[in-house]
């Protein structure tokens, strides 16, 4: 479907405005969270891949407590692939949903051994081809473990980009696409981390703290809040 010229111009103008907004947001939040990176502990890409799977519906703090012992016990993809399922379940149980998480870890580790010589691949297509690994996880691992920029769309990023008005999409893949268009590629991972940290500290799900928000004037919902004061 071909959009009429005026709609194309509006979209282009909107993208340009949001590009400027993103740059300003990065500037403000970059000062508030100067060490913006994942809170998950890891020593290599496999560690981070495992930790990211375990972090689903679990705090990073709890995951780090579990992986402290886990990473000493399982050092390679082969170790996870050959692990007794019930034993692996017991090892990751404190993170919740332990059966599904253990199955995912064992599944992608088996695939890593068979297809990638036990090494986590350093490109998105190969990584998302692993069982149980989606784009959010892959982009996080690429950005943090390989230094390859990727937009990580978790629940915080979904919430904040909607409130700020950077996208009208709610599907994570479509949100990722929108953010890639308006964010400098070199800042994809950093911008994601900044939004995640801000979402945890200030722009919380139930009660966003507009009065503490440094980007309130760059946010559609924040500006509406100020107007109603």
Compile the SSE list and pairings.
Elements (H helix, E strand, L loop, with lengths): L4 H28 L12 H10 L5 H14 L3 H5 L3 H8 L5 H19 L7 H5 L6 H11 L9 H10 L7 H11 L5 H14 L18 H8 L2
The amount of helix comes to 55-70%
Low-pLDDT runs of 5+ residues are 1-6
Enumerate how many helices there are, as a single number. 12
Q: What is the end-to-end distance?
A: 43 Å
| Strand residues, percent | under 5%
Sequence of secondary-structure elements:
HHHHHHHHHHHH
Shape field: elongated
Average pLDDT confidence is 94
Write down how many β-strands occur, each being a DSSP E stretch of 2 or more residues: 0
Largest sheet: none
Structural class assignment: mainly alpha
Radius of gyration: 19 Å
Q: What this model shows, in words?
A:
There is one protein chain. The chain is an all-alpha fold and 229 residues long. Helix content is 62%, strand content 0%. The radius of gyration is 19 Å and the shape is elongated.
